[in-house]
Hints:
Blueprint: H1 2-12, H2 32-37, H3 56-61, H4 66-70, E1 78-83, H5 86-97, H6 103-114, H7 116-120, E2 125-128, H8 133-139, H9 143-155, E3 164-166, H10 178-185, E4 189-191, E5 201-209, H11 213-224, E6 229-237
Parallel strand pairs: 1-6, 2-5, 5-6
Antiparallel strand pairs: 3-4
Amino acid sequence: MKVLFQKFLNLILPPRCPYCGEIVCLPDALCEDCFNKIEFISAPYCHICGAPFENEKDANISRVCADCAAHKKITRFNRSAVIYDDFFKSGLHRFKFHDQIFFSKLYAKWLKTGGEDIFKNGVDLIVPVPLSYQRLFKRRYNQSALLAKELSKLVCVPVDLNCLKKVKNTKPQSSLSEKQRLKNLKNAFEIKDKSSVCDKRIVLVDDVMTTGATLFECAKVLIKAGAKSVDTLTIARTKKS
């Protein structure tokens, strides 16, 4: 019955591409033109941090990038679905700042694909990166929480929206240097009930990874609280300079 109702609904209100509005065949999908403008991340990429290798030669030498080889990461895997560029950004900003929350279903599909390595290695809990109360009040919703809930439905892994809290209203990270970002986030996150994350394999969900400062600070708090492992999963990541 539900399938028939959806087909009827699609006849009178056909699904449209969330980026350009063109009619598409399936709900929560891009039209061909917009799909071709998205730079999806595919192999070869670093086995640990997920950063794409610049060329096949680098990938053949090692499955791990130079940075991960030199510095031990607190996280198990870091994965992203697409490269952060101007075209992707146009949709993300509508999702984050203009109440167009229907993007969450599309982006959750990308997260499932981009996080395939993570889910193959086992996940017990999905946790979104939280917003401060002040930021949440102003925006009215946490885009990462919306993504986490939709992803939970797709991969059949439970989500906990409340275990990780942001207890300090920090400055926007985009305006800070890498050193300032780390200082800005110090003591910003907290876990009220450690039993909710103890001995669990957790995947942290957020929209974009730039330096990774926010994600890694959250990971530190989760590990300290007893999490067995922490992975990070974002829709997009910036290219390494």
